[in-house]
Amino acid sequence: MPAETFGPGFKFLPRKEVLTYEEIARLARIFVSLGVHKLRITGGEPLVRADLPELIEQLAAIPGADDIALTTNGHLLEKFAAPLARAGLRRATVSLDSHDPAVFKQMSGGVSAPERVLRGIDAAVAAGLGPIKINCVVQRGVNDHTLVDLAARFRGTGQIVRFIEYMDVGTANGWELAQVVPAREIVARISERFPLEPADPNYQGEVARRWRYRDGEGEIGVISSVTKPFCGDCTRARLSAEGSLVTCLFATTGRDLKTPLRAGASDDELRAVITGVWGRRRDRYSEERSALAASRAGQRIEMFRLGG
C-alpha cells in the first residue's frame, strides 16, 4: 500500500462496512458447500486485523475446509504464528522480495526489516506451519540481482521460495513490461549456480511451476503469469474485506455479497448468486493483456484489496 497515498491521514473503511468474522465464516461455508476446500486469508496484511485467530478457528471448524492458509508480509508473524496454528491454521506464505536490508527497505517502504520477517518464518516453522512458501516478486533493476542469494538462503531448509514475475496488478505500482524478469531467465540464473530440473505439479491448476535442485536440496517455484499465463486453469475466487466476490486478480469490479447477506438472504439465495457469477466468468486478462491493458488503465482493483 503506497505510503504516499496511505499515510497517517488516510481514512480507511469504517468498521461497519467490513465483513464480520461471522459473515466471512458463513460465506466460506457456502463456498465450501459448492466444492471449495482451500481457504486462504490474505490482504492487505491480515495480521493487523484484531483477534485473527478467532476467524481461523471459525474457518477450521467448517466441514470440508481441509486447507486453511495465510499470506502475510511477516512483520507480525513471530507474535502470531503459534496462536494461529493452535486455532487451526495449516500453512503460511510469507512475502519477502529480498533479504538484503537495503533492497528490502526500498521495496517495503522501510516499515519492517528482513531480520524481523526471517524471525517470523522461523516462528511459523516452529509452530508447524511449514513448509513455508516465501513469495518474491522479481522486478528488473530493483531486486533481480538478489534472487540467487535469496534462493541460497532457503536452499536445504525445507522452505520453498516462489519467484513471481512482476505483474500489472492494480494501478499504483507503475508497471512496465521492461521491468519483468521472465520465468525462464529466473530459472536460468538460479540453475547456473544451483542446477535445477523440472518437477511435476502437486495438483491441477497449481500456479507455480515447480523446479527441484538436482542435488536433492529442496525446490523453488516460479509463477509466470505474464510470459506464460494460466487463466484456463484458474480456480480461485476472492472475497474482499467489504464483501465483494471477485473472480480475477486483474478485475475492475466485483459482485456485492454483503448487501444481500445483511438483507436476510438465505444460504440458498446466496449460493445462487455465487454460482451465477462463477458460471458467467470469462476472465482471461493475463492471456489478453496487450488488448485489455489500455482499456482497463486506472480501473483495476488494487492488489492490497485482493491478495495474490
Overview of this structure, please?
The model has no long low-confidence stretch (mean pLDDT 89). This protein has 308 residues and is α/β, with parallel strands linked by helices. The two termini are 14 Å apart. The protein is 32% helix and 15% strand. The chain has helices at 21-33, 52-60, 77-87, 101-108, 114-126, 147-154, 183-193, 258-262, 267-280, 289-292, 303-306, and strands at residues 38-41, 67-72, 91-95, 133-138, 160-165, 196-198, 209-213, 219-223, 238-239, 244-246, 255-256. Helix 1 crosses helix 9 (267-280). It is built from eleven helices and eleven strands. Strands 1-2-3-4-5-8-7-6 form an eight-stranded mixed β-sheet, with helices on one face. Strands 9-10-11 form a three-stranded antiparallel β-sheet.
Pick out its properties.
308 residues; 15% strand; alpha/beta; three-stranded antiparallel sheet
Quick gist of this model?
The protein is an alpha/beta fold and 308 residues long. It is 32% helix and 15% strand. It is built from 11 helices and 11 strands.
Mean pLDDT equals 89
Record field, number of beta strands: 11
Which regions are unreliable across 5 or more consecutive residues at pLDDT < 50? none
Task: Give the class from helix and strand content and strand pairing.
Answer: alpha/beta
Q: Distance between the terminal alpha carbons, to the nearest Å? A: 14 Å
Q: Calculate Rg over CA atoms.
A: 19 Å
Count, helices: 11
How do the strands line up in the largest sheet? 1-2-3-4-5-8-7-6
Shape: globular
Q: What is the H/E string?
A: HEHEHEHHEHEHEEEEEEHHHH
Proportion of beta-strand residues: 15-25%
Largest sheet: 8 strands, mixed
Bin the helical content.
25-40%
